[in-house]
Amino acid sequence: MNVLLRARFCAFSLLLMFGYAQALHAESSPVLEAELQPLKNAFAGDAAQVRAAISKLEWSGISDPEIFDVAAERLEANYKAQLPAEIELNSWLAKGLALSGNPKYQPLFDKILAMQTRKRKLRKHVEIASQRLAVNQSWNPVIAKDNHLAQSQAELDKLRIKNMLNASLPDLVSTGTRLVYNHHKTDVELMDEVHEILAAQYKSSTNPEHLDAMAWMCRTLGESGNGKYKGTLERIAKDNAAHKKVRKYAEKYADYL
Q1: Residue 56 and residue 39: Cα distance in Å, rounded?
Q2: For residues 111 and 51, what is the distance between their CA atoms, to the nearest angstrom?
Q3: So what's the pLDDT on residue 27?
Q4: Cα 187 to Cα 69, 93, 143, 161, 190, distances in angstroms
Q5: What are the pLDDT digits (tens) for 145-185?
Q6: Does the pLDDT of residue 115 top 90, yes or no?
Q7: d(CA 28, CA 68)
Q8: Per-residue DSSP letters for the chain?
Q9: What's the pTM value of the predicted model, to 2 decimals?
Q10: CB neighbours of 244 closer than 8 A, spacing ≥ 6?
Q11: Mean per-residue pLDDT for 115-125?
């Protein structure tokens, strides 16, 4: 790596670390504390409890080391275990650690991957976890923005999705849109948010991941059953300023309404 590239890489890493540090020191609230409390013991439980914790932590933006250090200590103590049940548990612990976005867990992943004798299943999951750790390092501060302002769990869940939809990271926008599509197509507030973002951004799509997000927005609006979005989709379908992929999806899903 030449000097210029190394300098750019270091600068980028510092920015990610700064964002991560902000997420760790974000203000708390009774709603956040109520959400975190049961998670603090989950990584000390069995595989089913660990899986349940992961399902709650995914897309939450939570990076609290008080939660994840338990998983790290447990994985470090037992990653050489050979029994199938232990390998299964260690694989889930690795997946859980990836959700933290905390780079301090990367050396543990590296140590496991460097083992001369290792079970293929654990190695595969740790490799994936290592990649996801880097992604969540940039995603978590975005998702966690202003989470302390939520007055209820439902409001907190909705705020996180809005943060994802309005992110500058196309892959995070696409993920947020899929969450709306899969779980919130009857939520008028979130659907209107998708509509506003699509209407504002569909002409600027050139990045493949951003195009994917716009296509999913067309699909989400089209399958909402709400006819008020039909006009926007029809307009996009006829607008030559839009990418052909977005026009194609807009035309297809306008017919659903």
Answers
A1: 8
A2: 23
A3: 66
A4: 36, 33, 19, 12, 6
A5: 999 999 999 999 999 999 999 999 999 999 999 999 999 99
A6: no
A7: 17
A8: --HHHHHHHHHHHHHHHHHHHHHHT----HHHHHHHTTHHHHTTS-HHHHHHHHHHHTTS----HHHHHHHHHHHHHHTT--SHHHHHHHHHHHHHHHHH--GGGHHHHHHHHT-SS--HHHHHHHHHHHHHHHHHHHHHHHHTTTGGG-SSHHHHHHHHHHHHHT-S-HHHHHHHHHHHHHH-TT-HHHHHHHHHHHHHHGGG--SHHHHHHHHHHHHHHHTS--GGGHHHHHHHHH-TTS-HHHHHHHHHHHTT-
A9: 0.85
A10: none
A11: 80
Domain ranges of the chain: 3-143, 166-254
Q: Which long-range contacts (CB under 8 A, 24 or more apart) does 234-243 make?
A: 236/198, 236/202, 239/202, 239/203, 241/203, 242/202, 242/203, 242/205, 243/205, 243/206, 243/211, 243/214
d(CA 98, CA 132): 6
Chain segment 199-257, per-residue pLDDT in tens: 999 998 788 999 999 999 999 999 999 999 999 999 999 999 999 999 999 999 999 99
Q: Find the length of the chain.
A: 257
